[in-house]
Amino acid sequence: MARWAPQEIDTMAAIASEVVAQVGTNRTVIAVxxxxxxxxxxxxxxxxxxxxxxxxxxxxxxxxxxxxxxxRTDLVTPFRxxxxxxxxxxxxxxxLLGPSTRTLWRWSLWVEQETGRLExxxxxxxxxxxxxxxxxxxxxxxxxxxxx
Length: 148
Hints:
This protein is an alpha/beta fold. The protein is built from four helices and six strands, in the order H-E-H-E-H-E-E-H-E-E. Strand 2, helix 3 and strand 3 (88-92) form a beta-alpha-beta unit. It is globular and about 50 Å long.
């Protein structure tokens, strides 16, 4: 018997709602990082669509590097200092949750797609605000990797 699973847009709208509730939307910058082989650009675009379902202006941008100073100069500071009011910037790229860059983000998402993943990147997953399993890309699943 097939099990029901939410569609991608429903999952991403729920994650966007979680971001809004936890950190707000006043020039908020969040990161999407993940395992090698995950389509982070697609996840970021889907998350932007999730924000738009809540009436929140959002946009995605690819990280050109994992250097904290370059990310701050090229993406974070310009977004936070231009424009006014609500807005979310979803920055996507591999390595964004490394120790030197994780403090740049108000909220972050780790994306993974296979079993046995916890052992390999537990350090990064602990730093992420949320974990998304995209093993089934049409039905991504928010994972609850808490320690309680």
